[in-house]
Amino acid sequence: MLGSMMMRPLNVADILTFAADTHPTGEIVSVRTEGDLHRYTYADSARRVAQLAHGLKAQGANPGDRIATLAWNGYRHFELYYAIAGIGSVCHTINPRLSAEQMTYIVTHAEDTMLFVDLTFVPIVAALRDHWPKGLKVVVMTDRAHMPDGDYLCYEELLDGHPESYDWPELPEETAVGLCYTSGTTGNPKGTLYTHRSTVLHAMMVGLSLPSALQPGKKILPVVPLFHVNAWGLPYAAPLTGASLIFPGGALDGESIFRLMDNEEVFSAWGVPTVWLGLQGEIANQGRLPTGFGDMVVGGSAAPASMIRDFEERGVNVCHAWGMTEMSPVGTQGNLPAHLADVSMDKKIEIKSKQGRRIFGVDLKIVDEDGTRLPHDGEAAGELYVRGNAITSGYFKNDEANATAFDAEGWFGTGDVATIDGDGYLTITDRAKDLIKSGGEWISSLDLENTVMAHPRVANCAVIAVPHPKWDERPLLIVVPSPEGKPEVSELMALLEEHFAKWQLPDDVVFEDELPLTATGKVSKLTLRKKYMDHVLPASG
Ligand code: AMP
Predict the structure, then answer these.
(1) What is the pLDDT of residue 187?
(2) Catalytic positions, please?
(3) Region 222-235: what's the mean pLDDT?
(4) Taking the alpha carbons of 491, 495, 496, 497 in that order, is the dihedral positive or negative?
(5) Tens of pLDDT along 457-473?
(6) Could you tell me which of 156, 350, 390, 480 has the fewest CB atoms within 10 Å of its CB?
(7) Can you tell me which atom of ligand 1 is nearest the CA of 325?
(8) CA of 389 to the centre of ligand 1 (A)
(9) Residues with a CB atom less than 6 Å from ligand 1
C-alpha cells in the first residue's frame, strides 16, 4: 500500500529561495580576482541568480546543456551553481590545475556549450580555445572595466537589466544538476553527474552530520574548491542552514588565509591538509589563532596526527572527514560521539586520526579479494565499497569504466583499502587504485608510466607515491634502462612535460636493474613503496 503524501521533487533552486526567505542576512564574502573584497547577503544573491538565469536564457542556454566553470571560490561562481541548476542546465566545474590535455578532453567529452572563466584563468582559455569545440561561448567573470581583449562575453553585462526574480521550473528530481570529472587510474578523467535529488539530500546529510558550523550566524571558510567535489557540499549546506560563506578566491597561502579568517572572524575552515599546514605556519609566526577560529574540517587526504594534535591543543575542534567526488562527496565525519566525548587528549588524537564514521545516507562495507564481507573489528582490512543516496550510479558517457566500477550487489568500489572498527570508525590503510594524491590533487601513475615507456631507452618503469611533509605524497619515477643504456633524466622530463602539468611531474628519478613482480606478474607497487618509503626527494616547492 502506498502512502498518500505530496511528491514534491527535490530541486536545488529551492535551497537558495529558502535561504533568501529564512536567512536573508546570511552573508557571502568573497576575495575577488579584481583584488578587492565583495560582500552581500543570501537575499542579494538570490536576486542576482535570477538575473543570471535570465541572462543564460538570453544566450540560448537550454535544459541539459553543460555549462562549464573555470573559477576560484567566489560569489559569482556560487551564483553560477544556482542559476545553471535552476534553469535545468548542468553546472560543469573544471579543475584549473589539470593538464592542458586533460582539460581539453573534459571540455570535449562534456560537450560544453558555454564556459565561465575567472580573470586568472583567461590565459588558459586563450591557449587552449582552438582545441575546444567550435562555438563554445566564453564569459569572463568580471565587469566591463576589467574585461580582457578577445572574443569574450562579460559576466556583469549578462546580468544587466534583467528582472530580479525568476519563475523556477519544477524539474523532475532526477534531472542532472552538476558534473565533476575526477582523474582515473587509466587515461582520461571520469565524470560524476549529480542529480537535483542527490544534491539536496547531500546538503541535508552534511547539515545533519556536521552541525557545529552549519548554523545560522556561523561563518565558514571553504578552502576546498567550488571547482572540484562541490566544495564538499558547502555551497548547498551553508545556505540551507543559514551559515555564512567566506570565499578566499585564489589567495590560498597561510598568510592570506590567516588574514581573511582574522578579519572576518571565521569560525570553521574546511580544506585539505596541505592548506592547513600553511595556516599552521602562520599561526606559529603570529603566536595566536585567527580571531573566532574554533572548528575545522580536514579531508581529501589523510590528516597527520601531529596536525590534528596541534589544532586540538590550541582549542580548535578538528573533524577528519573522508569522501569522494563520486559520493557528492562526503562519506564519513570524525567528530567524537557522545560516548567518547570525555576521553584523554592522546586517545582523542588517536580516534580523530581515523577517517570518521559514516554519515546518514552512506553505507560502507569492506571485502576481501573474493568479494566476501570482512568483519568490522578494526583489524580486517579490505577494499572499501559504498552505496547510498548521493553516490554515483555510473560515470557520465563511460561504459568502459562503468563495467568495473560496481560489484555484483551494485555497490561502488572506492579503490581505498580500509578497516572499520566496532565503533564504526573507518581507517584508510592503503589505496588499491594506482594514483598519487599531491596537495589534494590526483596524479595518475599509469599515465606517467605510459609516457615514459615511449622513450627508446626505457625497458620498464614504475611511478610510486613517496610520503611528503607538505604535499602528503609526491611521485617518484623508477626506471629500468634498456640494454642500449640509461636515458638522460632531462630527456624523460622533457617527454613528460609535453603531456603533464608541472606539479604532476615526478620529483625524482631512480634507476633499477629490474622491478619486483607480484604473483600475477604485475609490478609490485607495494614492494616498491616499502623500499622507497624513506627516499629523500629533492626540495619541491
Ligand atoms: P576525490 O574524489 O578527488 O575527492 O578523491 C577521493 C579519494 O581521496 C578517496 O577515495 C581517498 O583515496 C582520498 N581521500 C579523501 N579523503 C581522505 C582522508 N580523509 N584520508 C585519506 N584519504 C582520503
Answers:
(1) 67
(2) 182, 326, 437, 442
(3) 97
(4) positive
(5) 998 999 999 999 899 99
(6) 350
(7) 2
(8) 19
(9) 182, 229, 299-302, 320, 322, 324-325, 329, 355, 414-416, 428, 431, 437, 442
Which CATH number is associated with domain 362-430?
2.30.38.10
* pLDDT over 80 (residue 145): yes
- The minimum-distance atom of ligand 1 relative to the CA of 440 is 3
| Buried-exposed string 364-401: b where 16+ CB fall within 10 A, e elsewhere | bbbbeeeeeebebeeeebbbbbbbbebbbebbbebeeb
pLDDT tens digit string along 51-71? 999 999 999 999 999 999 999
Crossing angle, helix 273-286 and helix 254-264, to 10 degrees?
70
Question: Residue 185: pLDDT above 70?
Answer: no
Architecture of domain 8-207: 3-Layer(aba) Sandwich (3.40)
Which letter does DSSP use for residue 342 in this model? T
Average pLDDT of the residues of the chain: 95
- Ligand 1 pocket test target in 362, 428, 442 with most atoms within 8 Å of CB: 428
- Residue 43 neighbours by CB distance under 10 Å: 15
Residues pairing with 431 in the sheet: 416
Strand, coil or helix: 424: coil
The CATH number assigned to the domain with range 435-531 reads: 3.30.300.30
The number of the ligand 1 atom at minimal distance from the alpha carbon of 321 is 19
